[in-house]
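Weekly structure sync - notes
Attendees: PM, LS, DV (DV joined late)
Agenda: review two folding runs queued last week.

Item 1: First target. Sequence and structure tokens pasted below for the record.
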Amino acid sequence: MERDVQLVRDLVAAAPGFEGLFHAHAFNEDGVLPHVFFWDVVQETVASFLGGGESDWRVTLQFLEEQLRLDLPEVSQVVSTSFLFNLPWPDQPGYGLVDHLGPAMSARFAAIRPSKPCFQVPG
């Protein structure tokens, strides 16, 4: 089994609130597509942070922090591009979730979504 698919399975085992989402994806996609699945993980995690959802956002962040620290390329790519990059922006509800990222995820988040623009538009 590919490491990114195992990441999804391990997340569902660690955070059973994602089980229904997993089964819906597996049924609709004839298997789980990790990057697509993680779009919904972001939505569910933000909903949980805001007081709704079926998962515990703390468990999700802790699990992803531990996975990112393993420094496995496939896992890092999914966590970075399909979870961290899709977190709310400063003007969106749930942005406060960013303040609860662990050290590895905070560093990666800062690298892929710097707080200052990488370029300046000539004025």
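Item 2: Second target, run right after the first with the same settings.
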Amino acid sequence: MLELRPTCENCDKPLPPSSTDARICSFECTFCHDCVEQVLQGVCPNCGGGFVPRPVRPARDWKNGHFLGRYPATGTVTHKPVDAAAHAALVARLDGLAPERR
């Protein structure tokens, strides 16, 4: 079950469960679209993987109790701004490899 983390790890922008601006890697590191594109260059600073849009959990119980009310988002904030120099080194090491080849 996805945690649906509440903010961007880098800039701390709010990313509520209904946000279509949230991006996650396969380890569920969570960043906003702007940070992924402008700061991270599509590379997760924690694992080196790529990003996809985070799914939106239904707010209403449409079927079998699978909704936000039964499975709420976490309230735990993970805020660890990216070290620009370390991230630049990681991006350089990946040398343009597509996420599926990392």
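Discussion on item 2: The chain has one domain: 22-101.
Action: LS to circulate a short write-up before next sync.
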